[in-house]
Amino acid sequence: MSSPLEYTPVDAIPSIHATLRAGFASGKLKSIPARRKQLLALAYLVQDNAQAFEDSLHKDLGRPALETRLVDIGASIHEALYAYNNVSTWAKPEKAPFSLNWGATSPVIRKEAKGVVCIIVPFNVPLWCLISPLAGAIAAGNAALLKLPEQTPATSALLAKLVPRYLDPELYAVVNGAVEVNKVILALRWDHIFYTGSGRVGKIVAQAAAAHLTPVSLELGGKNPAIVDPKCDVRVAARRILWGRFTNAGQICTAIDYVLVPREFQDKLVDALLLEYAKAYSQDANARTSIGRLVSNASFARIKALLERTRGLVVAGGLEHIDEADKWIAPTVVRDVQLDDSLMEDEIFGPVLAIVPVDDVDAAIAYVNSRDHPLALYVFSQDKKFKAKVFDNTQSGGAFANESILHAAVDGLPFGGVGGSGSGYHRGKFGFDTFTHLRASYDAPNWMDYILGVRFAPYTTKNMNFLARLTAERLPARGSDGSEGSRKWVLFALATIAAATAVSSGKLRGLIGA
């Protein structure tokens, strides 16, 4: 049984919000050293309590320790440390690209915190889905409210205890609770909301944020396809597909949801899947130590109903290998799944892999494009043209070849969706940018009025003619595709040089008529 989770009283949430507002206004995180101190404390929060997180996530999700070390603990420490090591570079003011027209104004982009942000964390990977966006928020200099998932009470209770011990409580606060707590949170004004979860709730979050014109990042998931080419290493593909489906009992937003495979290659793929399945799970014995359980009775009932309704052929796992009392379903592989099958209605989000035979890659692409854009799309092929064809003709949050899920660990890549799978990004600098206001700035010298003085009243014909020449742009030939190149009109640049020369020689009069 999970430990009871103490919910935050709803009438305490506005005062928590006010405390965070005051903490941010104090300017504590203006300096980079202050941000680095919090980021390092965040990394130590995870490292010092790794065993406690293993225990809590096993209690909440039945998750094997190896998976927790990989997808939650190791990834979270790395994310915080990566921000710690790079924030000094990320936060530097950025010079605008050089321009002869405006170079004298020293245009610069200032990197400034948005303010007080709200991060709403899902149950499935609660530690990483908290630490990754939070690291970006801290690096950018924001205060943050952290709404933890009530479905993982042991882990949320542990975080509620640890966050105020490791992080500045005037800048970072945990809130626990269910629907009523969420309503109060969403009624308040935030400077950014970062939500990870279902599309249904994502719409509620976006609607609430719109009342305050609050920017929102939505990480929503979806039905992620894997398209298999006969020109693949089928054993490697099978092993990685199984891992990409059954990790965390399939409760991962980037998990492979279904496989599209040419009809003539389905048998060979299924044979390879069953061979790898036998090595990894060998029915219930190994599966119970390598696969966690579903998060709730409702999730268990939903997956069970899908398996009862499917018209596909179950070739591994299935209804004969379930434990309703423990909300556990054996990793299940179903072949010959049709496009209108129960398993293809919505995101499965459980330990069931659907194998869908199609005529060819064109049919696979057409089907993927008929649905909401997935968070991740996978291709298993050794053929460069095949991979390029799939990637060039589909849309998804990310597109990956010959591997699954691990892209979330690759430094330098954004993590985010598109369309139905969400909007916005996190991880590394992309998380920093999400929580950063890019503030345009420049400093114009006085002498520029000898060039741009024509903009001031009174408006004369002479000034109008000069301004027309000054702002003229030479366009490419009508209908041009740009392949022949184009030239920008340089009158303004020449005038700038002439003015600078005039300033240095003291000959200003007559440069521009009155």
Overview of the molecule:
There is one protein chain. The radius of gyration is 28 Å and the shape is globular. Helix 2 (32-48) runs antiparallel to helix 4, helix 4 (65-90) packs parallel to helix 5 (128-139) and helix 9 packs across helix 10 (266-280). The N and C termini lie far apart (85 Å). It has 18 helices and 18 strands. By secondary structure, it is an alpha/beta fold. Mean pLDDT is 93; it is low at 485-489 and 508-514. It has 3 domains: 17-220 and 430-439, Aldehyde Dehydrogenase, Chain A, domain 1, CATH 3.40.605.10; 225-415, Aldehyde Dehydrogenase, Chain A, domain 2 (3-Layer(aba) Sandwich); 450-503, no CATH class. It has helices at residues 13-25, 32-48, 50-61, 65-90, 128-139, 153-166, 179-187, 199-210, 234-246, 266-280, 284-290, 297-309, 361-370, 384-392, 428-434, 449-452, 461-470, 491-505, and strands spanning 94-95, 108-113, 116-120, 143-147, 172-175, 192-196, 216-219, 224-228, 256-262, 313-316, 322-323, 328-329, 332-335, 352-358, 376-380, 398-401, 422-423, 436-441. The strands form 4 sheets. It has a 7-stranded mixed beta sheet, sandwiched between helices. A 6-stranded mixed beta sheet has the order 5-4-3-6-7-17, sandwiched between helices.
